[in-house]
Write a structure and sequence with these properties.
Layout lengths: L41 E12 L16 E5 L14 E9 L5 E8 L10 E3 L5 E8 L6 E5 L4 E11 L7 E12 L7 E7 L13 E9 L4 E8 L10 E3 L5 E8 L4 E21 L1
Antiparallel strand pairs: 1-8, 2-7, 3-6, 3-8, 4-5, 4-7, 9-15, 10-15, 11-14, 11-15, 12-13, 12-15
Length: 281
């Protein structure tokens, strides 16, 4: 699975193209409306931050692993990421670390509600898999996570949605556009600064977060890729993983202070970055 924020087209529809025959499942967890709508929420980007990691010692946001067929509540507001109680939804990145055995699916939803018939990621090959998800806040700001099979779980955050106030941003959709593709003859990268606003995609320099689809094309196993605002210290987070050496994509909402973002790969890889929108004033 892969997350995507897709602008609505004719009659509110979206189009899907597949290079080869496949079934497709579409789940939805929200939509964007005009800023004048009284129900509208603004986006508040934060420096990417780690919420939880079950590979660490036993704690409310640490170990143990999630048992197969069980649900666990994560108190997002009690993390060290300094999120306000006004947050009504979170922009998260989930990473399943199953240890080699298949994980059918993982689902995240607001605490206090029934488990939905939807999935947030799948790790059927048993490799480490990441996927982005916007998850509404539930009771006391918490979210619930169900896993079909035993796995460790890492949760990172890059922003939240709350009522409009100082610093709140609106979403602007753009026609999907390619920002960079290092397969243009450049060598595989382990680090790269990307001038998103200086690309041919027409993104304004005052954009404060970019809605990106990031794809790695590694020549071999690649531990992880991290994205963050250029000019800041690299945070302890990951955007995607490709330990099996496969071409891998993920949605990433990446804050920016100057129209640039930075990328770090634990192992050499080619990288393709597409954009479908941005957040700004």
């Amino acid at each position: 699975s892969n997350a995507a924020i897709v602008p609505a087209g004719t009659a509110g529809a979206v189009s899907v193209f597949a290079t080869d025959t496949t079934d497709v499942v579409l789940d939805i967890n929200g939509y964007f409306v005009a800023a004048t709508d009284p129900t509208a929420l603004a986006f508040y980007p934060i420096t990417p931050c780690r919420i939880a990691d079950t590979r660490t010692a036993a704690a409310p946001l640490g170990g143990p692993s999630l048992g197969g067929g069980t649900t666990r509540t994560f108190s997002i507001l009690s993390s060290t990421c300094n999120l306000p109680a006004t947050a009504q939804a979170y922009s998260l990145n989930f990473t399943a670390v199953p240890g080699g055995h298949p994980v059918g699916y993982l689902t995240a939803w607001p605490t206090g509600q029934s488990k939905p018939l939807a999935s947030s990621l799948n790790a059927l090959t048993g490799t480490v898999v990441a996927n982005a998800a916007i998850v509404p806040a539930g009771t006391s700001g918490a979210i619930d996570v169900f896993v079909s099979d035993t796995t460790d779980l890492v949760i990172d955050i890059n922003g939240y949605f709350a009522p409009m106030d100082t610093g709140g941003l609106s979403m602007y959709g753009v026609a999907p556009c390619r920002v960079v593709d290092t397969r243009d003859g450049s060598p595989a990268i382990t680090s790269l600064d990307v001038a998103v606003s200086a690309s041919a995609c027409g993104i304004p320099s005052n954009a404060q977060a970019h809605v990106l689809s990031v794809t790695v094309v590694p020549p071999g196993p690649m531990g992880y890729l991290a994205l963050w605002p250029q000019g800041q210290t690299r945070p302890v987070v990951s955007t995607l993983n490709a330990l099996d050496g496969a071409i891998t994509s993920n949605l990433a909402i990446v804050p920016t202070t100057n129209g640039w973002i930075s990328a770090f790969a634990s192992d050499p890889t080619h990288m393709v970055v597409d954009i479908s929108g941005y957040f700004g004033q």
